[in-house]
Design a protein that fits this description.
Helix content is 58%, strand content 7%. It is built from 17 helices and six strands. The chain has a six-stranded parallel sheet. Helix 4 runs antiparallel to helix 7, helix 5 runs parallel beside helix 7 and helix 13 packs parallel to helix 17. The longest helix has 30 residues. It starts with a helix and ends with a helix.
């Protein structure tokens, strides 16, 4: 029987998890929310060592595993670049799901070895944890490989995939029922292997532009496996934490899919119908109007209203601090400047918010797409820094385009557009952006950090 004081501590940790999730809902409170959640997780991990009746075994191995995980986590968190954060999140998802699947296998092994008569619902929860945890692990590994460019970011399909995938899912369901009715370890292991296959087949047909949504979906899967594992282990805290992650991940997935104007089913299985979530990816040789930093500075310096659209290229160049300084200089000249944040800009939810918060950009200058879209027609200049797909008019005008139907920022409605790009290569969706060839658009080529520094100096010199 768990001591009352430990139950109260676990209850407090559960409340902290809820408060942490609430804190993460806004940029002003996100840091404190993260700290609250991390502190509660540490306390929850330490508590079993104080529960003397639990009779923990292999304590040295447990402590060694915690130490290795802590060192790896701290090292990764301090060294990972902002542009690699999505890969790190994908790995966290996978590790969580894989750990839950392994714990479920070990619990099932103990039940079988001791000849215990576990309730069928517990066995069903165990089977669910094994298969969904394995799906999350394998899917997250493939997602990591796509984002890290260890494999192509294009949809990977092969003849028969549309048949192999449902057969694998059906076989996993049959084996899961078998585990719940008559558990055997070989069946459970086969179920885990099938889960790995399903996870890989689930993510392979997804194009790179849709990977952030898949990360969110796999995060929800991991949360559900942790919740189911909490039920198997009779651990209410795991049940609370897993349910929170599963529910929030599901909502986030639906919101992101809505922001792209598509359904989750279309994102996951669109390539199986012959479509693609990526275009050709080839650089265009069509003529464009290019400008120097001095020309762009004049356009900005004599504007009354400027809107900045940040994108992944800004994160790659680590130019957010220079951009913030440029906005401060423009503000000092009496120019109104706002940042337009698209929900799926970058490679993960909130990527641009985090990037600009790192540069200490005031929160009131960060405006979401729905809030600022009506202001573009009043803007004298839109400065697009490293973004492409989120301002591509093809989302409105080109049926059949990979991003068709995705709500975009209305940069094409502004009087002038300055597009900062390294080259004429298309965005992550792999299609041309007609805004680049508009007579109102001027392109400032070069590395975003270098170009931004020259642009800043030119504005200061006005």
């Amino acid at each position: 029987m768990m001591p009352t004081w430990i139950q109260l501590v676990f209850l407090a940790c559960g409340v902290c998890f809820i408060l942490a999730l609430k804190g993460l809902s806004g940029p002003r409170t996100a840091r404190n929310g993260n700290l609250i959640g991390a502190a509660a997780a540490v306390v929850a991990c330490v508590m079993p060592f104080f529960w003397t009746d639990l009779h923990l075994r292999h304590v040295p191995l447990i402590i060694a595993a915690i130490a290795i995980g802590t060192v790896g986590g701290v090292y990764g968190a301090r060294t990972v670049q902002m542009t690699q954060m999505p890969q790190m999140v994908a790995l966290f998802n996978g590790v969580g799901g894989g750990a839950a699947a392994l714990v479920a296998l070990l619990e099932l092994h103990e039940v079988i070895e001791t000849g215990g008569d576990a309730p069928w619902f517990n066995l069903a929860a165990t089977a669910f944890t094994i298969v969904v945890g394995s799906i999350s692990f394998a899917g997250s590994v493939v997602t990591f490989a796509k984002l890290q460019e260890l494999m192509t970011s294009r949809p990977v399909v092969f003849p028969g995939l549309r048949y192999v995938f449902p057969i694998a899912v059906g076989a996993a369901l049959v084996l899961g029922v078998r585990v719940a009715i008559d558990p055997h370890m070989w069946i459970a292991i086969l179920l885990g292997l099938l889960g790995l296959l399903v996870g890989a087949l689930l993510v392979l047909p997804v194009g790179g532009a849709d990977v952030p949504i898949v990360i969110s979906l796999l995060n929800a899967f991991t949360g559900l496996t942790v919740a189911a594992g909490g039920y198997v282990l009779s651990n209410v805290l795991l049940l609370i934490a897993g349910t929170l992650v599963g529910a929030s991940g599901t909502f986030l997935t639906l919101l992101m899919a809505g922001a792209m104007g598509r359904s989750v089913a279309n994102i996951l299985f669109g390539a199986l119908k012959g479509g693609s979530t990526l275009g050709s990816g080839e650089a265009s040789d069509r003529p464009v109007r290019s400008v120097t930093p001095e020309d762009a500075a004049i356009m900005l310096g004599y504007a009354d209203r400027v809107i900045v659209v940040p994108g992944y290229g800004l994160a790659v160049a680590q130019a957010q601090h220079t951009l913030r300084e440029l906005v401060d200089v423009l503000g000092a000249k009496g120019i109104q400047v706002d940042y337009a944040i698209h929900p799926v800009a970058g490679r993960m939810p909130g990527h641009m918010n985090v990037l600009l918060a790192e540069a200490q950009v005031p929160y009131e200058q960060l405006r979401e797409m729905d809030d600022i879209n009506g202001d573009f027609k009043e803007a004298d200049v839109v400065l697009v820094v490293g973004a492409n797909d989120v301002v591509n008019p093809a989302a409105r005008t080109t049926p059949g385009a990979p991003i068709y139907g995705m709500p975009i920022l209305n940069a094409d409605q502004a009087r002038q557009v300055i597009f900062m790009k390294r080259s004429m290569r298309p965005g992550f969706a792999g299609i041309e952006n007609e805004l680049l060839f508009d007579e109102r658009t001027a392109l400032l080529f070069g590395d975003a950090k270098d170009s931004m520094g020259k642009l800043l100096n030119a504005v200061k010199a006005l």
